[in-house]
Amino acid sequence: MLLKEFASLLKHSNLYGDPDTVITGIKTDSRKVKSGDLFICIVGHHVDGHQFTEQAVKNGAVALVIQQDVEWNVPKIRVKDSRYAMAVFSSAFYQYPSHKLKLIGVTGTNGKTTTTYLIEKVLRDQSHRTGLMGTIQMKIDDQSYNVENTTLEALELQRSLDLMQKNKIDYCIMEVSSHALEMGRVLGCHYRTAIFTNLTQDHLDYHGTMDKYKQSKGLLFSRLGNTFSDNPENRKYAVLNGDDPVSNYLKKITTAEVFTYGIDQEGVDVQATDIRITSKGTNFKVNTFVGSMDFCIQLIGKFNIYNALAAITASLLEGITLKSIKESLEQVKGIDGRFESVYENQDYLVIVDYSHTPDSLENALKTISEFAEGKITCVFGCGGDRDRTKRPLMGQIAAKYCDHVYVTSDNPRTENPIHILLDIEKGIIDSGMTGSQYELIVDRKQAIKKAISNAYAKDVVLIAGKGHETYQEIHGVKKDFDDRLVAKKVIRSIINDDPSI
Ligand SMILES: CC(=O)N[C@H]1[C@@H](OP(=O)(O)OP(=O)(O)OC[C@H]2O[C@@H](n3ccc(=O)[nH]c3=O)[C@H](O)[C@@H]2O)O[C@H](CO)[C@@H](O)[C@@H]1O[C@H](C)C(=O)N[C@@H](C)C(=O)N[C@H](CCC(=O)O)C(=O)O
Ligand SMILES: Nc1ncnc2c1ncn2[C@@H]1O[C@H](COP(=O)(O)OP(=O)(O)OP(=O)(O)O)[C@@H](O)[C@H]1O
Ligand SMILES: N[C@H](CCC[C@H](N)C(=O)O)C(=O)O
Ligand SMILES: [Mg+2]
């Protein structure tokens, strides 16, 4: 593309230098710039990209996108907001890839990853070629790629959608985080269906208030567009959790056709009834606008029924039969690090779960309390440099459901680990748990070891917060750490009477 073609995409832009400069790539990180690139200067949360123009030019940038003056004598486009320009320019550079496949976006505090995996499974079983983007990975058909964020920055996102489109992917199912919506990472995305799972407390460090957090989630629905087309392929759907009051707000701000799912509220389009939850799976009946059917899924817990309902609704809207959806969902054994059982023939249960919010921790523990025959123990912490107000709430919740709690480190990131533990302890103390019922152990491995060592037949040990993660970030340094591997080793060492771990 030529520089003038980029400039013409924004009314509010000024071009300086040769308008016919040929652009062969776009970068927002000066360290990654190659010859022929357009370097977009982003004002970040830590540093200002305008500081790195010298490195970008040295590395071969032939032009810059700026929102404030820089001294380099290279062609430039000055814009009002370079983050917005990044979304516009990358969508155009990759020729609007989200228009060339069906994009399904899932937002909400909890359940996004699970729901995207369920939809991917249903669509793949219908011989669709699928792409997936989210917390655990990006996938293009069977190929997996590592990701830094749940929802990629606009440039990487458009590049990934382009790669999907080139690989003949017909559906992409993606998690859309509130950060991404707020920062405009998904501005260039043309969604077919937007799904809302739920809204409970998280990320108040970033959004400030629950109302602002709700409004960020709402952007996925308010920007969805409308369904007014005689071509069914162009229709837009909003799939909402009818049991979450936030859905009333989302209904008002979307012009897409609304479908609701739920358990408790009457009158939803897709409803689960006759629920039975065990430690092996979950049975329920689904009543939909195309009929009813009994489901027997291997995922555990009421919260997973909501995820299944969201996936069922979105799949029905793609014309897939309820019977096929049932067959696919019943085959799903589990999702990496979500309520994942670590089993080494021991006579107690050890479950690793990604619950890192008050609501998800409560859901996991409540589910366990419904089937546990012995004592319940939880090992958990809270992430550093994240919402501090959730820490005592999670302490209270653990105290409410557990016989014993081990408060430990999650990813302290740049915070002092012990301060995080003390914040959690406040909630435990408030709930009246005594000193003999809980312990603060900064070292996560030691906490897991102690919790498992103290488990007896039929007890359940929940190791919460890190799920699929294979690292732990302490003092800003990431080191290998996997709750599942640590738990496995500890169980084996107990069985083999080997104290070396
Ligand atoms: C707060 C936040 O979201 N930050 C994201 C943001 O970084 P930033 O704005 O701080 O960038 P910065 O480091 O200040 O740099 C500014 C600019 O200078 C450039 N730069 C920087 C250094 C250099 O030498 N040269 C250079 O050009 C950078 O490439 C960038 O363009 O842009 C980065 C690149 O896309 C993201 O990786 C980063 O996510 C960080 C890692 C993060 O932790 N984000 C979390 C809060 C987040 O987004 N989480 C949500 C999921 C939440 C959930 O639902 O649970 C997510 O979608 O992942
Ligand atoms: N629908 C749900 N409602 C409440 N809690 C849920 C739901 N689904 C899953 N959970 C809980 O939340 C945890 C995270 O689930 P999942 O990874 O699917 O959510 P997510 O929204 O993708 O999270 P993240 O914001 O970290 O990307 C699970 O381990 C489980 O404890
Ligand atoms: N997407 C979430 C993941 C949190 C996972 C938890 N293990 C933590 O580190 O806080 C976040 O970035 O807030
Ligand atoms: Mg996720």
From TrEMBL:
This is UDP-N-acetylmuramoyl-L-alanyl-D-glutamate--2,6-diaminopimelate ligase. GO terms for cellular component: cytoplasm. Residues 106-314 form the Mur ligase central domain. Pathway: Cell wall biogenesis; peptidoglycan biosynthesis. One of its GO terms (biological process) is regulation of cell shape. UDP-N-acetyl-alpha-D-muramoyl-L-alanyl-D-glutamate binds at S30, N149, T150, T151, S177, R185. It is found in: Cytoplasm. Residues 23-94 form the Mur ligase N-terminal catalytic domain. PANTHER family: MUR LIGASE FAMILY MEMBER (PTHR23135), UDP-N-ACETYLMURAMOYL-L-ALANYL-D-GLUTAMATE--2,6-DIAMINOPIMELATE LIGASE MURE HOMOLOG, CHLOROPLASTIC (PTHR23135:SF4). Pfam families: Mur_ligase, Mur_ligase_C, Mur_ligase_M. Residues 337-467 form the Mur ligase C-terminal domain. Gene3D superfamilies: Mur ligase, C-terminal domain, Mur-like, catalytic domain, MurE/MurF, N-terminal domain. Meso-2,6-diaminopimelate binds at R386, D410, N411, P412, R413, G465, E469.
